[in-house]
Amino acid sequence: MEYYQRDLALVHARGFGQHADLCAPGLLDLLAPVRGGLVLELGCGAGALTRHLLAAGHRVIATDASAPMVELARAALGGEVDLRQLALPDDPLPAADAIVSVGHVISYLPDAAAVDRALVAMAGALRPGGVLAIDVCDLEFGRVRAGQDTSGRVGPDWAVIAEYSTPAPDTFVRDITTFVPDRAGLWRRNSERHENVLVDTSLIPALLAARGVAATVGSSFGAEELPPGLRTVTGVRS
Fold first, then answer.
1. Residues in the chain with pLDDT < 70?
2. Which of 82, 87, 96, 6 is nearest to 50 (CA)?
């Protein structure tokens, strides 16, 4: 399943950078011990968090599985930023002093086993003393959103409607319809179905500990409070 194709990538870039902005201060505090090292960002999108990492002086490899997202990030950040298309859980990860991700990137993987493989890959890519800071959807994410109403947002040159469903305790679905203007003066309609796998995040610290990363699960990276059911996983490799 291909997520964030051209139209939705554009809508997300123009109207949905708030989560990265909210998380950035806490993430930057967590990265203070590895300042000057290399930060690997997974699921960079159009570069909303990447901007904060670069402004703080970090060296960054920013990656995303979506080719349109990588193109938008390159247009926004410039050609000198190291941007790569990379898909979890099987693409090899470069060694890094920190691995960060916001927007529950690993929750887009097909199942809990794939989430575990991605976490193991992250642990293996961290250098000694390296920092891990990501967010992921817990099983609670679906429970608190059961029956959630359809929502919509409109920008100057885009509109989006999302319908929600929880077909299983470990699955949260967004059926997303986008509208963007085309070159003929009309509005183009497109749609994507996003299926997020929900996991028992209380099991993650033990998985990472077996790979040398002492991690904790929380509800924020710092002073911010994440939406219900969205958990942070932060830790340090020994």
1. none
2. 82
Which residue type is seen at 219?
Answer: S
Residue 183 confidence (pLDDT): 81
Q: What values do phi and psi take at 45, rounded to 5?
A: 60, -140
Closest CA to 135 of 164, 99, 111, 165: 99
| DSSP state letters, 167-235 | EETTEEEEEEEEEEE-TTSSEEEEEEEEEEE-B-GGGHHHHHHTTTEEEEEES-SSS--PPTTEEEEEE
Query: Strands 158-168 and 59-64, how do they pair?
Result: unpaired
What ranges make up the beta strands (E) of 14-148? Answer: 38-42, 59-64, 82-85, 96-101, 126-137
* pLDDT of amino acid 184: 83
At residue 191, the pLDDT reads 97
Which 3 state secondary structure label does DSSP give 103?
Answer: coil
Neighbouring-strand partners of residue 163: 175
Q: Using CB atoms within 10 A of its CB, is residue 234 exposed (0-12), middle (13-18) or buried (19+)?
A: buried
Listed in sequence order, the DSSP H helices in 31-100 are 48-55, 67-77
pLDDT reported for residue 226: 95
Entry pTM: 0.96
Tokens for 54? Answer: 């670069």
